[in-house]
Amino acid sequence: MMSYKEKVERELKRWEHKINRPPSLPAGLSKRWQNKINNKIPEKIHNIVTESVKHMVQATLVGSDYLSELDRVTEATLEERDRQFDGRVAMYKRTAAVEGAGTGFGGIMLGLADFPLLLTIKMKCLFDAGKIYGFNTDEPKERLFLLHIFQLAFSKEVVKKNSLEKVKSWDELEGVLREENGKSHEIDWRTFQLEYRDFIDLPKTLQLVPGFGALVGATANYHYLEILAHHTKNSFRYRLLTHE
Protein backbone atom coordinates (compact mmCIF):
# COMPACT_ATOMS: atom_id res chain seq x y z
CA MET A 1 0.00 0.00 0.00
CA MET A 2 1.31 3.44 -0.95
CA SER A 3 2.35 5.64 1.98
CA TYR A 4 1.05 9.20 2.30
CA LYS A 5 4.50 10.54 1.49
CA GLU A 6 4.67 8.46 -1.70
CA LYS A 7 1.21 9.68 -2.69
CA VAL A 8 2.29 13.30 -2.19
CA GLU A 9 5.52 12.80 -4.12
CA ARG A 10 3.54 11.42 -7.05
CA GLU A 11 1.18 14.41 -6.91
CA LEU A 12 4.15 16.79 -6.86
CA LYS A 13 5.58 15.21 -10.00
CA ARG A 14 2.26 15.67 -11.78
CA TRP A 15 2.11 19.26 -10.53
CA GLU A 16 5.56 20.08 -11.93
CA HIS A 17 4.85 18.32 -15.21
CA LYS A 18 1.64 20.25 -15.74
CA ILE A 19 3.36 23.60 -15.13
CA ASN A 20 6.28 22.79 -17.42
CA ARG A 21 4.33 21.33 -20.33
CA PRO A 22 3.91 23.44 -23.51
CA PRO A 23 0.87 25.75 -23.60
CA SER A 24 -2.23 24.50 -25.37
CA LEU A 25 -2.55 27.71 -27.41
CA PRO A 26 0.30 29.36 -29.37
CA ALA A 27 1.64 32.33 -27.39
CA GLY A 28 0.82 34.81 -30.16
CA LEU A 29 -2.79 33.68 -30.49
CA SER A 30 -3.28 33.73 -26.73
CA LYS A 31 -1.81 37.24 -26.50
CA ARG A 32 -4.01 38.58 -29.33
CA TRP A 33 -7.10 37.17 -27.62
CA GLN A 34 -6.03 38.74 -24.33
CA ASN A 35 -5.43 42.12 -25.99
CA LYS A 36 -8.93 42.07 -27.47
CA ILE A 37 -10.36 41.47 -24.01
CA ASN A 38 -8.19 44.19 -22.44
CA ASN A 39 -9.26 46.76 -25.04
CA LYS A 40 -12.91 46.25 -24.14
CA ILE A 41 -12.39 46.74 -20.41
CA PRO A 42 -12.75 50.31 -19.09
CA GLU A 43 -9.52 51.95 -17.95
CA LYS A 44 -11.09 52.50 -14.53
CA ILE A 45 -11.17 48.75 -13.98
CA HIS A 46 -7.54 48.34 -15.04
CA ASN A 47 -6.54 51.11 -12.61
CA ILE A 48 -8.42 49.53 -9.71
CA VAL A 49 -6.78 46.16 -10.31
CA THR A 50 -3.35 47.80 -10.61
CA GLU A 51 -3.69 49.78 -7.39
CA SER A 52 -5.24 46.85 -5.52
CA VAL A 53 -2.38 44.52 -6.44
CA LYS A 54 0.23 47.18 -5.66
CA HIS A 55 -1.29 47.68 -2.22
CA MET A 56 -1.49 43.93 -1.69
CA VAL A 57 2.22 43.49 -2.46
CA GLN A 58 3.22 46.30 -0.10
CA ALA A 59 0.89 45.11 2.66
CA THR A 60 2.21 41.56 2.36
CA LEU A 61 5.83 42.64 2.62
CA VAL A 62 5.63 45.12 5.50
CA GLY A 63 2.05 45.36 6.78
CA SER A 64 -0.26 43.54 9.14
CA ASP A 65 -3.39 43.53 6.94
CA TYR A 66 -3.33 39.80 6.28
CA LEU A 67 -1.93 38.45 9.54
CA SER A 68 -3.45 35.13 10.51
CA GLU A 69 -5.09 34.53 13.87
CA LEU A 70 -3.99 30.90 13.67
CA ASP A 71 -1.20 29.60 15.86
CA ARG A 72 1.87 28.40 14.04
CA VAL A 73 1.75 24.59 13.78
CA THR A 74 5.14 23.33 14.93
CA GLU A 75 4.41 19.64 15.56
CA ALA A 76 2.35 17.76 12.97
CA THR A 77 2.71 15.24 10.18
CA LEU A 78 2.39 16.35 6.57
CA GLU A 79 -0.94 14.56 6.33
CA GLU A 80 -2.25 16.43 9.37
CA ARG A 81 -1.09 19.75 7.92
CA ASP A 82 -2.74 18.99 4.58
CA ARG A 83 -5.99 18.10 6.30
CA GLN A 84 -5.99 21.29 8.36
CA PHE A 85 -5.20 23.39 5.29
CA ASP A 86 -8.00 21.74 3.29
CA GLY A 87 -10.46 22.67 6.02
CA ARG A 88 -9.28 26.26 6.01
CA VAL A 89 -9.51 26.45 2.23
CA ALA A 90 -13.10 25.18 2.30
CA MET A 91 -14.00 28.10 4.56
CA TYR A 92 -12.34 30.63 2.27
CA LYS A 93 -13.99 29.12 -0.82
CA ARG A 94 -17.41 29.63 0.75
CA THR A 95 -16.53 33.21 1.65
CA ALA A 96 -15.22 33.96 -1.84
CA ALA A 97 -18.24 32.40 -3.56
CA VAL A 98 -20.74 34.35 -1.44
CA GLU A 99 -18.82 37.58 -1.91
CA GLY A 100 -18.54 37.02 -5.68
CA ALA A 101 -22.26 36.33 -6.05
CA GLY A 102 -23.12 39.44 -4.03
CA THR A 103 -20.98 41.78 -6.10
CA GLY A 104 -22.08 40.05 -9.30
CA PHE A 105 -25.72 40.92 -8.64
CA GLY A 106 -24.78 44.57 -8.38
CA GLY A 107 -23.13 44.89 -11.78
CA ILE A 108 -20.23 47.17 -12.54
CA MET A 109 -19.94 49.27 -9.36
CA LEU A 110 -20.07 46.39 -6.91
CA GLY A 111 -18.05 44.31 -9.36
CA LEU A 112 -15.24 46.83 -9.11
CA ALA A 113 -15.26 46.40 -5.34
CA ASP A 114 -14.70 42.67 -5.78
CA PHE A 115 -11.06 43.02 -6.86
CA PRO A 116 -9.54 44.17 -3.54
CA LEU A 117 -11.93 41.98 -1.53
CA LEU A 118 -10.93 38.82 -3.34
CA LEU A 119 -7.25 39.74 -3.04
CA THR A 120 -7.68 40.02 0.72
CA ILE A 121 -9.30 36.57 0.91
CA LYS A 122 -6.48 35.05 -1.15
CA MET A 123 -3.73 36.62 0.93
CA LYS A 124 -5.33 35.63 4.22
CA CYS A 125 -5.50 32.08 2.88
CA LEU A 126 -1.78 32.23 2.05
CA PHE A 127 -0.80 33.57 5.47
CA ASP A 128 -2.87 30.83 7.12
CA ALA A 129 -1.09 28.25 4.98
CA GLY A 130 2.31 29.52 6.08
CA LYS A 131 1.41 28.93 9.73
CA ILE A 132 -0.28 25.58 9.11
CA TYR A 133 2.84 24.27 7.36
CA GLY A 134 5.03 25.51 10.21
CA PHE A 135 6.67 28.66 8.84
CA ASN A 136 7.01 32.06 10.50
CA THR A 137 5.06 34.51 8.34
CA ASP A 138 6.45 37.45 10.32
CA GLU A 139 9.76 36.95 8.51
CA PRO A 140 10.32 38.92 5.26
CA LYS A 141 11.63 35.77 3.57
CA GLU A 142 8.38 33.91 4.23
CA ARG A 143 6.25 36.83 3.08
CA LEU A 144 8.14 36.94 -0.19
CA PHE A 145 7.57 33.22 -0.54
CA LEU A 146 3.82 33.78 -0.28
CA LEU A 147 3.97 36.36 -3.07
CA HIS A 148 5.84 33.93 -5.30
CA ILE A 149 3.17 31.30 -4.66
CA PHE A 150 0.57 33.88 -5.67
CA GLN A 151 2.52 34.61 -8.84
CA LEU A 152 2.86 30.89 -9.55
CA ALA A 153 -0.90 30.47 -9.27
CA PHE A 154 -1.98 33.47 -11.31
CA SER A 155 0.52 33.92 -14.14
CA LYS A 156 0.93 32.73 -17.71
CA GLU A 157 3.41 30.09 -18.86
CA VAL A 158 6.84 31.80 -18.76
CA VAL A 159 6.33 33.62 -15.46
CA LYS A 160 4.68 30.53 -13.97
CA LYS A 161 7.71 28.38 -14.81
CA ASN A 162 10.10 30.95 -13.36
CA SER A 163 8.01 31.16 -10.20
CA LEU A 164 8.06 27.38 -9.85
CA GLU A 165 11.87 27.36 -9.97
CA LYS A 166 12.02 30.04 -7.27
CA VAL A 167 9.59 28.12 -5.08
CA LYS A 168 11.58 24.90 -5.48
CA SER A 169 14.90 26.55 -4.57
CA TRP A 170 13.54 29.00 -2.00
CA ASP A 171 15.53 27.92 1.03
CA GLU A 172 18.75 28.02 -0.99
CA LEU A 173 18.11 31.76 -1.51
CA GLU A 174 18.02 32.47 2.21
CA GLY A 175 21.39 34.26 2.34
CA VAL A 176 20.53 36.59 -0.54
CA LEU A 177 17.13 37.36 0.90
CA ARG A 178 18.57 38.10 4.32
CA GLU A 179 20.92 40.67 2.78
CA GLU A 180 18.08 42.29 0.85
CA ASN A 181 15.86 42.14 3.96
CA GLY A 182 12.72 41.54 1.95
CA LYS A 183 12.94 44.70 -0.16
CA SER A 184 10.12 45.03 -2.66
CA HIS A 185 12.44 45.03 -5.68
CA GLU A 186 12.56 41.26 -5.26
CA ILE A 187 9.04 41.39 -6.70
CA ASP A 188 8.42 43.26 -9.95
CA TRP A 189 4.97 44.41 -8.88
CA ARG A 190 4.10 45.83 -12.31
CA THR A 191 4.66 42.48 -14.00
CA PHE A 192 2.98 40.88 -11.01
CA GLN A 193 -0.22 42.89 -11.43
CA LEU A 194 -0.28 42.57 -15.24
CA GLU A 195 -0.03 38.80 -15.01
CA TYR A 196 -2.79 38.67 -12.42
CA ARG A 197 -5.00 41.05 -14.39
CA ASP A 198 -4.60 39.08 -17.61
CA PHE A 199 -5.26 35.80 -15.81
CA ILE A 200 -8.60 36.93 -14.37
CA ASP A 201 -9.87 39.38 -17.02
CA LEU A 202 -12.45 37.31 -18.91
CA PRO A 203 -14.40 35.88 -15.94
CA LYS A 204 -14.21 39.19 -14.11
CA THR A 205 -15.48 41.11 -17.14
CA LEU A 206 -18.50 38.80 -17.34
CA GLN A 207 -19.05 39.35 -13.63
CA LEU A 208 -19.71 43.04 -14.32
CA VAL A 209 -22.88 42.16 -16.27
CA PRO A 210 -25.80 42.73 -13.84
CA GLY A 211 -27.67 39.55 -12.89
CA PHE A 212 -25.59 37.22 -15.05
CA GLY A 213 -22.57 38.39 -13.11
CA ALA A 214 -23.82 36.77 -9.91
CA LEU A 215 -23.42 33.25 -11.28
CA VAL A 216 -20.08 34.06 -12.90
CA GLY A 217 -18.82 35.84 -9.79
CA ALA A 218 -19.57 32.98 -7.41
CA THR A 219 -18.13 30.38 -9.79
CA ALA A 220 -15.01 32.37 -10.70
CA ASN A 221 -14.13 33.27 -7.12
CA TYR A 222 -14.53 29.66 -6.00
CA HIS A 223 -12.36 28.54 -8.93
CA TYR A 224 -9.61 31.06 -8.14
CA LEU A 225 -9.42 29.86 -4.55
CA GLU A 226 -9.10 26.28 -5.82
CA ILE A 227 -6.21 27.30 -8.07
CA LEU A 228 -4.45 29.16 -5.26
CA ALA A 229 -4.98 26.32 -2.78
CA HIS A 230 -3.58 23.75 -5.23
CA HIS A 231 -0.34 25.65 -5.79
CA THR A 232 -0.04 26.70 -2.15
CA LYS A 233 -0.36 23.18 -0.80
CA ASN A 234 2.15 21.77 -3.28
CA SER A 235 4.65 24.60 -2.74
CA PHE A 236 4.73 23.99 1.01
CA ARG A 237 4.72 20.22 0.56
CA TYR A 238 7.79 20.55 -1.67
CA ARG A 239 9.66 22.61 0.94
CA LEU A 240 8.85 20.25 3.77
CA LEU A 241 9.73 17.07 1.87
CA THR A 242 12.92 18.56 0.42
CA HIS A 243 14.25 19.39 3.88
CA GLU A 244 13.21 16.33 5.84
UniProtKB/TrEMBL annotation:
One Pfam family this sequence matches: EcsC
Domain of life the protein comes from: Bacteria
UniProt name for this protein: EcsC family protein
